[in-house]
Amino acid sequence: MGESVHDGWYSSTHTHGGKRDPTAVIGHAPEHRDWKPGDPAIHPQIDSTARIEAFVTIDAGMQHATHVGARAWLMKHVHVGHDATVGDDCELAPGVVVCGHATLEAGVRMGVNSCVLPYRTIGKGARIGSGAVVTKNVPAGEVWVGNPAAPIQRHAEDRIRAISS
Ligand SMILES: CC(C)(COP(=O)(O)OP(=O)(O)OC[C@H]1O[C@@H](n2cnc3c(N)ncnc32)[C@H](O)[C@@H]1OP(=O)(O)O)[C@@H](O)C(=O)NCCC(=O)NCCS
């Protein structure tokens, strides 16, 4: 277990500081019934500090660029649909699906295999439990779990303060 071997392995795979794993697929055509070849497909805007792990897919937008903000961390197998927004400092665990036109405000964390349906907004600093299906807008700072997801506690103030500072 030589340390140099370990270091070498990480150097080819880590995403710290804003890297994209080569297996990520960025800018495929919008997955929408109305979209057809020749229609607008606006390339995603991804902040250079965002971490994009293996097998992440981020689709092109139909109306505006799909957006991934600064220091956002998209772990393995995350999918971000067309025209969605992932705000600064969001953390999306493996298998998260952000459907088309959904918005995650800054500092949202979503647990493994959770999803948010199209056009919903998850407010600043909110947390979504693993496996949750978010069918409604989630207010800032709340913690929602389950299918359909519902709030389990309210502790918005501390988290919002932390994100704002
Ligand atoms: C199931 C579905 C078709 C129902 O749509 P709808 O009839 O407009 O339903 P509403 O959003 O009005 O919600 C009705 C109720 O069902 C619940 N609900 C909606 N979708 C749900 C889902 N996927 N899982 C669990 N509950 C769901 C809502 O929370 C709501 O509950 P309430 O009456 O207690 O408030 C839709 O919510 C859905 O899941 N569509 C698939 C989206 C998708 O995967 N699109 C792919 C493109 S990215």
Describe this structure in words.
This protein is α/β, with parallel strands linked by helices and 165 residues long. The protein has one domain (8-164): UDP N-Acetylglucosamine Acyltransferase, domain 1 (3 Solenoid). The protein is built from 2 helices and 18 strands. Strands 3-6-9-12-15-17-18 form a 7-stranded mixed beta sheet, with no helix packed on it. A 6-stranded parallel beta sheet has the order 1-4-7-10-13-16, with no helix packed on it. The radius of gyration is 16 Å and the shape is globular. The mean pLDDT is 91. The site of coenzyme A has 10 residues, from loops.
Bound molecules: coenzyme A
Radius of gyration (Å): 16 Å
CATH architecture: 3 Solenoid
Average pLDDT across residues? 91
Low-pLDDT sequence parts: none
Helix content: 10-25%
Number of domains: 1
* Strands ordered across the widest β-sheet: 3-6-9-12-15-17-18
The percent range for strand residues is: 15-25%
By CATH, the topology is UDP N-Acetylglucosamine Acyltransferase, domain 1
Q: So, the CATH homologous superfamily?
A: Hexapeptide repeat proteins
| Biggest beta-sheet profile | 7 strands, mixed
Helical run tally: 2
H-E order: HEEEEEEEEEEEEEEEEEEH
Per the principal axes of the C-alpha atoms, what is the gross shape?
A: globular
The top level CATH class name = Mainly Beta
The number of strands is 18
Question: How far apart, in Å, are the first and last alpha carbons?
Answer: 42 Å
**Helix/strand class:** alpha/beta
